[in-house]
Specification:
Blueprint: H1 10-13, E1 30-36, E2 44-45, E3 73-75, E4 78-79, E5 83-84, E6 93-97, E7 114-119, E8 130-141, E9 160-171, E10 174-186, E11 189-197, H2 204-207, E12 237-244, E13 259-266, E14 271-277, E15 280-283, E16 292-293, E17 302-310, E18 316-327
Antiparallel strand pairs: 1-18, 2-7, 3-6, 4-5, 6-18, 7-17, 8-13, 8-18, 9-10, 9-17, 10-11, 10-16, 11-12, 13-14, 14-15
């Protein structure tokens, strides 16, 4: 179900959205979309190649191989020991997955090691002050093998490198990517730290891993572009102050625990405000959102993004039960 409304949050007005599950969110004044994936994809899809080049709808030359990215799907979260988990409420969640492939962290991500979902929207109120993304999510690794002989050798938590959430926006003749990612593991070792999108002082060529003439500019698509460093740093992200956090991750893929996430942005002043993961809120006030020169024909762009990345040669999965995007 996808709802477009300017009605304030029901806690303030008593308005009935027709779904009591909205109460587990805390939206701003205008709810732009409320997506519950037991009702369908709601417009969320994989990021596909741009088939626009002559003579036969070719794609621009790029180091990013988007056709290797797995599709976005609806899932009932069936697990190895026969059974089906379902969603937090209902049967289906939105599932992002990777292929069973990965490079070392300090290399460019291997084709297929990253799963990506995008919903294509646009601003409908240019006087917007704040923008917020909320979701209930879970993640797990495929239990295809035992990693080692130690206790919990089949846990496989460190097979997931990172997941992230954000927006790709363009307004007032400026484009910007804003969001955060959770770096769960680096080359098989636990990291468990949050980072927010903001590029380092590097050139466009460095942003594209030293490739001259790639179409992408610094600040665009940080989930893929931007050099990575062996200690977990990334030229597209900065560490969140006091951003260490252990998320709830249970022992097997039949024990999916749903987690809450919320990201709040000040789009008027182009700054971060805060984000929340489970019961912790992280203060990002004053952290700037990096501006990028406007791209042609996409003024008013407002695309929410979700992605997950692999750290080992096994599949990992990110499940999203429901999403609310709101503004005031």
């Amino acid at each position: 179900m996808s709802v477009l409304t300017e009605t304030p949050h029901p806690a303030a007005t008593g308005f009935d959205f027709g779904d009591s599950q909205i109460d587990r969110f805390n939206p701003l004044k205008r709810v732009l979309t409320y997506d519950t994936f037991s009702h369908g994809h709601n417009g969320w899809m994989a990021l596909m190649p741009n088939f626009t080049q002559a003579p036969n709808f070719d794609t621009r030359k790029s180091i990013v191989i988007k056709h290797e990215w797995p599709p976005v799907m609806l899932s009932s979260a069936t697990y190895r020991y026969p059974g089906t988990h379902g969603a937090l409420s209902g049967t289906y969640s939105l599932k992002l997955s990777t292929r069973p492939t990965a490079n070392r962290y300090d290399q460019m991500p291997a084709p297929g090691s990253l799963g990506h979902a995008i919903k294509r929207m646009s601003f409908h109120h240019r006087d917007s002050k704040r923008l917020q993304f909320e979701m209930w999510f879970s993640y797990t690794a495929e239990q295809d093998r035992v990693s080692n002989t130690a206790d919990l050798g089949g846990l496989s938590e460190n097979s997931l490198r990172a997941f992230g959430v954000g927006f790709d926006m363009q307004e007032r003749q400026s484009r910007a990517f804003a969001g955060v990612r959770y770096v769960n593991a680096v080359d098989g070792k636990p990291h468990r730290k949050w980072q927010y999108i903001h590029p380092s002082d590097v050139s466009d060529d460095d942003w594209a891993y030293g490739t001259e003439g790639d179409w992408c500019k610094k600040g665009v698509d940080p989930m893929w572009y931007g050099r990575r460093h062996p200690d977990g740093r990334h030229d597209g992200f900065q560490y969140v102050p006091n951003g260490e956090q252990e998320l709830c991750y249970n022992e097997t893929d039949c024990k999916i625990n749903w987690l809450y996430f919320r990201l709040l942005l000040d789009v008027k002043n182009r700054e971060y405000v805060e984000f929340q993961a489970q019961d912790r809120t992280f203060d990002l006030r004053g952290k700037p959102i990096f501006p990028i020169p406007a791209y042609a024909r996409i003024e008013g762009l407002l695309n929410p993004l979700i992605w997950v990345e692999n750290d080992a040669k096994r599949r990992v999965f990110l499940y999203i039960d429901s999403i609310v995007v709101s503004q005031d």
